[in-house]
């Protein structure tokens, strides 16, 4: 079996960017992607210079088309299910859902993260009328009556302060959390309504919110807003490979993609376990790929 220079797992902006760098460096690589990118639920990817408001699927397809220019890059539409390390991490055997096995010297993890919503019905509206990133969607919601849904005080305050830059007409829902007097005072000074009652469900049609119903039966009408989900890595590849993780959930690296495990690199949201912009993720993919290429160069020269 031929040994690849690098396998990149994840075809979001970090993985695509890393693939482009390594393709241009004439490295034999395989990019795995199973089309579960986090922004697939929205119609537009925003804030990426020269590609602002591009459909996420179109953005991804443009990236893959660019990779076609480099014959050493292969794309596999499959999910990586297992990675087996040999002695001293000199080789990795990668097993995938297409029942194939691949052997590589180096690996870049770029599978990203996924959201968890504390109110399940939020998922029905996420990406169309409810959003998590004001930098991505704040402009489109400017000056609209908005709802902010969060159930931790630091999330409530951080998100509300940010969104206040785009709209002053805000209603904050805490889903049962009682805010501190200081937090209430800050919000009320800016005439922001606070509802601490527990939420029963969200009501709307075809992804577009109409109102929120509380356990008491009372409702509040809002068509758009922002939520504060929690995030998780959708697989155990980081743990499978033994990468050292900080207590805050971030994978420990040297700052340019090298993890604590030899020949294992990481990029994008996979590294931080927190959301970031497309442009930042792409930049981190670039850095990780450069580290891979530098290491291959030094080892083989």
From TrEMBL:
<dbReference type="Pfam" id="PF07992">
    <property type="entry name" value="Pyr_redox_2"/>
</dbReference>
<dbReference type="InterPro" id="IPR023753">
    <property type="entry name" value="FAD/NAD-binding_dom"/>
</dbReference>
<dbReference type="InterPro" id="IPR036188">
    <property type="entry name" value="FAD/NAD-bd_sf"/>
</dbReference>
<dbReference type="GO" id="GO:0016491">
    <property type="term" value="F:oxidoreductase activity"/>
</dbReference>
<keyword id="KW-0560">Oxidoreductase</keyword>
<dbReference type="InterPro" id="IPR050097">
    <property type="entry name" value="Ferredoxin-NADP_redctase_2"/>
</dbReference>
<keyword id="KW-0285">Flavoprotein</keyword>
<protein>
    <submittedName>
        <fullName>Thioredoxin reductase</fullName>
    </submittedName>
</protein>
<comment type="subunit">
    <text>Homodimer.</text>
</comment>
<feature type="domain" description="FAD/NAD(P)-binding">
    <location>
        <begin position="5"/>
        <end position="149"/>
    </location>
</feature>
<feature type="domain" description="FAD/NAD(P)-binding">
    <location>
        <begin position="178"/>
        <end position="275"/>
    </location>
</feature>
């Amino acid at each position: 079996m031929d040994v690849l220079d690098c396998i990149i797992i994840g075809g979001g902006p970090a993985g695509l960017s890393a693939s482009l760098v390594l393709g241009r460096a004439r490295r034999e690589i395989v990019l795995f992607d199973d089309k579960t990118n986090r922004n697939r639920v929205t119609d537009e990817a925003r804030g990426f210079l020269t590609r602002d408001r591009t459909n996420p699927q179109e953005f991804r397809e443009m990236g893959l088309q660019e990779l076609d220019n480099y014959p050493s890059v292969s794309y596999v539409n499959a999910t990586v299910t297992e990675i087996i390390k040999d002695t001293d991490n000199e080789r990795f055997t990668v097993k995938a859902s297409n029942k194939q096995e691949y052997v590589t010297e180096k690996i870049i993890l770029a599978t990203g993260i996924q959201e968890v919503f504390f109110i399940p019905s939020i998922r029905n509206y996420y990406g169309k009328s409810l959003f998590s990133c004001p930098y991505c969607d704040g402009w489109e919601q400017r000056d609209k009556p908005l709802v902010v849904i969060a159930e931790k005080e630091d999330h409530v305050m951080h998100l509300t302060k940010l969104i206040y830059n785009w709209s002053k007409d805000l209603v904050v829902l805490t889903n049962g959390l009682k805010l501190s007097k200081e937090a209430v005072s800050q919000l009320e000074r800016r005439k922001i309504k606070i509802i601490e009652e527990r939420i029963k469900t969200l009501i709307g049609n075809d992804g577009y919110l109409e109102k929120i119903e509380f356990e008491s039966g009372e409702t509040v009408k809002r068509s758009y807003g922002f939520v504060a989900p929690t995030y998780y890595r959708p697989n155990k590849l980081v743990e499978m490979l033994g990468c050292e993780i900080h207590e805050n959930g971030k994978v420990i690296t040297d700052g340019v993609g090298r993890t604590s495990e030899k020949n294992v690199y990481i990029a994008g949201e996979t590294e931080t376990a927190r959301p970031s912009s497309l442009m930042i993720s792409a930049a981190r993919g670039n850095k990780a790929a450069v580290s891979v290429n530098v290491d291959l160069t030094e080892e083989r020269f």
